[in-house]
Amino acid sequence: MATIITIDGPSGVGKGTIAQLLAQTFGYALLDSGALYRLTAVNAMRLGLNPDDESEAAQAVKDLSVDFRDGKVFLHGIDVTKTIREERTGQVASRVAVHPVVRQGLFDFMHAFVREPGIVADGRDMGTVVFPNADLKLFLTASADIRAQRRYKQLRSNGKDVNLDTVFFELNERDKRDSSRSAAPLEPAKDAVIIDTGELGVLQVFEKVKAVAASRGIVP
Predict the structure, then answer these.
(1) Could you tell me which of 128, 149, 138 has the C-alpha nearest to residue 16?
(2) How confident is the model at residue 97 (pLDDT cuts 50, 70, 90)?
(3) In 16-71, where do the E strands start and end?
(4) Burial class (CB in 10 A: 0-12, 13-18, 19+), 80
(5) Is 48 or 69 the better-scoring residue by pLDDT?
């Protein structure tokens, strides 16, 4: 049976980085649920659909044709690896994610993704909704100030002309949407291990995660 590790948390806590390190170290497949929602968002924009309209957002999922290969992400044969990481895409992704019909479509996709020897699933409701029986559930957190600063530095390093106040505002708006939505609000699973990454470096967080995994009998 495949081992399932879930990593949930808000933007800017380092979920993606830790998930990649875990997947590489353990030889597991990586499931980036955020990429799926972002792909749905890109598809909605491509088709000129309204992400706030449930029926139109549902069409974006039905029309989804995705391929992950060579470290890149393709939508209908087009490389959208950079596009799905743009700030606008993230905002639209958060809007389409509030619709239950969208979540159900991607829920089915993610369950079909599970494979031996295991997967690391990174997102916002992996341990609470998608994989409630996961072998290990992690929830990473950090203050809004620290997360905004991390996101700001990331965007600047990618050549984006952004303002820290704007980044902080958008992050807070997304937190509000994710935490208050009726379908799978952002919250740690009752049996999740919560790790505050605010004052820790990537390797420090990774060592903590590996130690927790080892305590559950999950080793590379």
Answers:
(1) 138
(2) confident
(3) 29-32, 66-69
(4) buried
(5) 48
Count CB atoms within 10 A of the CB of residue 97.
27
Question: 8, 2, 6, 9: which is closest to 171 by C-alpha?
Answer: 9
Q: Collapse the DSSP code of 17 into the 3-class scheme (helix H, G, I; strand E, B; otherwise coil) and give the result.
A: helix
CATH of the domain at 137: 3.40.50.300
Q: Which has more confidence, 177 or 92?
A: 92
Count of the separate structural domains present in the chain? 2
Burial of 88 (0-12, 13-18, 19+ CB in 10 A): exposed
Q: 37, 66 in Cβ contact below 8 A?
A: no
Side-chain half-sphere exposure of 93, counting CA atoms within 13 A: 22
If asked whether residues 10 and 75 sit together in one domain, one would say no
Range of the domain at 107: 29-116
Measuring CA to CA, which residue among 181, 31, 154 is closest to residue 87?
A: 154
- Of residues 78 and 30, more confidently modeled: 78
pLDDT at 16: 87
Query: Which residue, among 190, 179, 186, has the nearest Cα to 132 in the 3D structure?
Result: 190
The three-class DSSP label of residue 55 is helix
pLDDT cut 90: percent of the chain above it:
59
The average confidence (pLDDT) of the chain is 90
Distance CA 70, CA 51 (A): 29
